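Example pasted here:
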Amino acid sequence: MNKLKHYRNAINATQKDVGDIVGVSQSSIDRYESGIRKLNTSKAWEMVNALNRLGSSCSFTDVFPDPLECGQSAANHVNGIQDN
């Protein structure tokens, strides 16, 4: 699972704050955070950049940990990111 919510909450940003920068709705951010909606790699980078613009200091792998380092079950989930 991704850590979008963790990093967003750490900087006291709302889902709307992040969505406004990325160009998606608050409900889309909610779905990304919960894993209901999958992120492609490009959108995942936009999310990391938005968090950093709002005051975070996180890297891509902070927000989207390598599933291979998290164990086989996580590797099968692939962090909710799809390569497109």
About this structure: The mean pLDDT is 88. Residues 41-53 form the longest helix (13 residues). The first strand starts at residue 39 and ends at 40.
